[in-house]
Design the sequence.
């Protein structure tokens, strides 16, 4: 779809493959002796195997291979930054040839599976008689629920929002992931017996909320999969002015509107970019979601400020290219110094030019200010997309024995998902910090396997019955 066409709506921008095109693209896989694409995938998907099957026209078998290692391949196929994961590791790409479009094939197979009824309902072979509570209905929680319910556990998922999906529903815009794609996964879990208690804030004080102690008392094991939602905020002068908004507030409002909700802050314009000069501060995928949402809402102009250069931007290079095609202007090596205007409204952002100075052990470059490099950009709306930090989980859950890392994420034992509370596990961003959806899926699946082993060890009669 052309950039001019796609900015007029929030539909996904990539068209589906025709069967002939899908098999042709899959046939480009070189079937390497060492599949770097697989090692570049957090889920370690059997990519060469299902590409070969797809190339031979054996689409359902290819799908089975795909779903064997991933609970939501058609979602990861849409939103993974393949350019720096599987596709970036592809031997063809490394050799100077165009990479196999692995993500597009994965999405094509997944959509075909739903259309043709290959996605079967969850029907456990045996009911274990034990239950697991999952706090958080985002990708880690949904992935764990799928695996645990398939293993025969009663599963209840708690989430503070009124819809399941977490950032898949409320954080990621529809032009990257249409919401029916997430909902059909949720519907499959519900059909399989997973119970969702939505609008329930664990540790909250509202009507219908539950304490963490009550959740633990209800279940044999608990998984914390809350994600990280506390936004990092600007500290520059003027950052408290009306018109400076947090990225997640902005994206949630936009996604709710797309889902048919009436959002007062969108209606009154405070969380809408329509007709405004928008400046987004940040360089990750959330920043890209914000700039591309703003242009679709009819912003007069959209500028992205990032303090490093293009090569050191943490967001997907593909997302940056899409944004540029859609008319977004990037100010590389620019850092905000102040928000201009007054308490009643924003008029601009004063920034300063930066220069790369030294490369750290992690490969990222530090930056320093360029003397005399100040400049102003007009703005009516400033969106802070500076990343996310964990909430105070032990305080919120009234669980002082729940240990944290120095980064305030939940501490787990070694390479396991076990926390310092007996029978309580944790997975996803609340453990690793703000990261990719595919890593959350991997963590959720791994946590489910660990919880299964832990519960099975405490129910030898059930273990024997399953073996029989």
Sequence:
């Amino acid at each position: 779809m052309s950039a001019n066409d796609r900015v007029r709506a929030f539909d996904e921008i990539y068209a589906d493959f025709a069967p002939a095109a899908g098999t042709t693209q899959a046939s480009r896989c070189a079937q390497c002796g060492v599949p770097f694409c697989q090692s570049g995938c957090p889920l370690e998907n059997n990519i060469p195997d299902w590409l070969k099957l797809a190339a031979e026209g054996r689409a359902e078998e290819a799908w089975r291979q795909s779903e064997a290692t991933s609970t939501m391949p058609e979602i990861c196929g849409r939103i993974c930054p393949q350019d720096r994961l599987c596709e970036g590791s592809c031997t063809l790409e490394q050799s100077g040839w165009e990479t196999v479009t692995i993500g597009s094939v994965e999405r094509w197979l997944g959509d075909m599976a739903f259309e043709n009824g290959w996605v079967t309902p969850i029907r456990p072979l045996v009911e274990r008689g034990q239950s697991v509570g999952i706090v958080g209905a985002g990708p880690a929680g949904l992935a764990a629920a799928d695996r645990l319910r398939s293993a025969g556990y009663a599963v209840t998922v708690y989430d503070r929002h009124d819809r399941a999906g977490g950032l898949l529903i409320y954080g990621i815009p529809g032009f990257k992931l249409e919401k029916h794609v997430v909902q059909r996964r949720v519907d499959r879990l519900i059909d399989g017996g997973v119970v969702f208690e939505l609008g329930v804030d664990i540790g909250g004080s509202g009507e219908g909320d539950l304490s963490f102690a009550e959740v633990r008392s209800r279940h044999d094991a608990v998984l914390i999969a809350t994600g990280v939602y506390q936004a990092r905020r600007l500290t520059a002068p003027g950052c408290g002015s009306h018109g400076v908004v947090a990225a997640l507030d902005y994206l949630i409002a936009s996604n709710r509107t797309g889902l048919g909700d009436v959002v007062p802050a969108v209606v009154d314009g405070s969380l809408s970019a329509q007709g405004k000069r928008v400046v987004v501060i940040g360089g990750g995928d959330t920043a890209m979601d914000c700039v591309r949402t703003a242009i679709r809402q009819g912003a007069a102009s959209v500028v992205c400020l990032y303090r490093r250069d293009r090569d050191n931007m943490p967001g997907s290079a593909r997302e940056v290219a899409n944004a540029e095609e859609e008319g977004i202007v990037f100010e590389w090596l620019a850092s905000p110094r102040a928000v201009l205007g007054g308490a009643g409204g924003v008029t601009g952002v004063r920034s300063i030019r930066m220069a790369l100075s030294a490369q750290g052990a992690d490969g990222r470059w530090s930056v320093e200010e360029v003397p005399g490099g100040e400049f102003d950009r007009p703005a009516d709306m400033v969106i802070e997309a500076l990343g996310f930090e964990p909430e105070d989980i032990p305080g919120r859950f009234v669980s002082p024995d729940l240990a944290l890392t120095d980064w305030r994420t939940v501490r787990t034992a070694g390479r396991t998902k076990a926390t310092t509370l007996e029978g309580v596990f944790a997975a996803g961003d609340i453990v690793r910090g703000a990261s990719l959806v595919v890593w959350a899926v991997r963590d959720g699946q791994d946590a489910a396997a660990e919880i299964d082993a832990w519960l099975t060890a405490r129910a030898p009669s059930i273990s024997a019955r399953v073996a029989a």
Summary: The CA atoms of residues 168 and 290 lie 15 Å apart. Confidence is low (pLDDT under 50) at residues 462-468. The chain is about 35% helix and 20% strand.
